[in-house]
Amino acid sequence: MAHSHPGVRVSESPKSRIPTTIWLLGTVSLLMDISSEMVHSLLPIYLVVHLNTSTLTLGIIEGIAESAALMVKVFSGALSDYFGKRKPLAVFGYGLSALSKPLFAIATTIEIAFSARLIDRLGKGIRGAPRDALIADVTPKNIRGAAYGLRQSMDTVGAFAGPLIAMALMLLWDNQFLWVFWVATIPGFLAVSLLMVGLREPSSRTTNNKTTIHLDQLTQLTTPYWWVVGFGSLFTLARFSEAFILLSAQQRGLPIAYAPLIMVAMSFAYALSAYPFGKLADRMRHTSLLAGGILTLIGADLIIATSHTLIAMVTGVLLWGIHLGMTQGLLATMVSHTVPAQLRGTGFGIFNLVSGLSMLFASILAGWIWQQYGAAYTYYAGALFCLFALAILVLFRIIEDNNANEISI
After folding, report:
1. Can you tell me the distance from the alpha carbon of 79 to that of 211, in angstroms, rounded to the nearest whole number?
2. Residues 274 and 329 sit within 8 Å (Cβ to Cβ)
3. Phi, psi dihedral angles at 285 (to 5 degrees)
4. Integer Cα distance of 206 and 312 in angstroms
5. Distance of CA 116 to CAs 6, 39, 43, 107, 203, Å?
6. What is the mean pLDDT of residues 27-51?
7. Measuring CA to CA, which residue among 272, 320, 319 is closest to residue 152?
């Protein structure tokens, strides 16, 4: 577990300055998230209201798309380890997401919309593990929490700028969804161009440093790593797709054109909290911060489930965003601390493969509960999964304290 680092003065050490590569990756993420969130902040309502999609079908679409993104990371991560290069796969992944945007703009059927969503998320999956491994490649261990938090914060700035742009265009063009989707192609292609021109990999990673792919390599992954994988999978069960939050807001009376404001609020809270909590992760025990994130998500679930006004709904959404800021960069930091340097891509890939399977199950389950019992019970179920994850976390904390010299994350 990460503790404080006596004697380390982050502000004065050259090794404690965040590398330029992280800022570039953050800018690329910002642009791509503007593109993606212009679409995703409207897509669930477009599917349900205009294409008459059921909540169960929406859950299946979201579950398959999001889990595919996470599961494909295992292959892209392993390939980046094998070739000793992160950039080509990152460019390919971002490029695939950019190419999916025109498909959304011609999505007049569920089949086309699902295909575009799947391609977009596959692109996200392909770029994710190489990018996360590259961050660890170029960042000193003592500030990785801050580096992951910074990239996540910049990513999330795009995640609330995108919905704001979408809302403005929806009001300007009288709810013309497909026109907005066309505009979303622009920042997507800008992101790919910047990545291709600006990114330089560290010279220490070359094609002469290939890591051969063997199943025997899994024996190099330690108990702390597998604990992070298992816990991340369990925690994902409590985090079904945010598409259901958009539907909840609409049920509270939010006009369609203003629906992106929900994602703006969530992303605003996420962006403001990700970097500070990332820095905090470099100075405190990770289990303590995880516990705080779980409790915050429980609060969000209960508030959204019982809210009858938009103000209460937004309060729950803000807490949801804060929980993301507390936990998502932290989990990436924990993975980076528990895998060998030569297997970082593989380690991130396996972590996201297992989490992807959990996301698929969680989103389908959420859609089924919503359809059978109503929206509130979807959030109650999420809170129950949170309580179970918290119990497992407390148990591990006890084991960790009793075996301080054997287990450390």
Report:
1. 9
2. yes
3. -65, 135
4. 52
5. 50, 11, 11, 8, 36
6. 90
7. 272
Element holding 341 (H helix, E strand): none
DSSP state, residue 49: I
Q: Which amino acid is at 187?
A: P
| Residue 160 CA neighbour count, 13 Å, CB half | 19
User: CA torsion sign, 242 to 244 to 249 to 255?
Assistant: positive
What letter would DSSP give residue 255? -
Within 8 A by CB and 6+ apart from 148, the residues are 132, 135, 278, 329, 332, 333, 336
Q: What is the pLDDT of residue 8?
A: 39
> What pLDDT digit, counting tens, does each position of 140-168 carry?
878 888 888 888 788 878 887 898 999 99
Are the CB atoms for 58 and 48 separated by under 8 Å?
A: yes
What distance in Å separates the CA atoms of residue 104 and residue 72, rounded to the nearest whole number? 22
Distance of alpha carbon 408 from alpha carbon 405, whole angstroms = 7
């301080």: which residue's tokens?
404
Cα torsion for 236, 237, 238, 244, to the nearest 10°? 100
Domains annotated for the chain, with CATH where assigned, are 14-197+216-402 (1.20.1250.20)
Does residue 329 contact residue 26 with C-beta atoms inside 8 Å? no
Cα 54 to Cα 203: distance, rounded to the nearest angstrom: 51
pTM equals 0.68
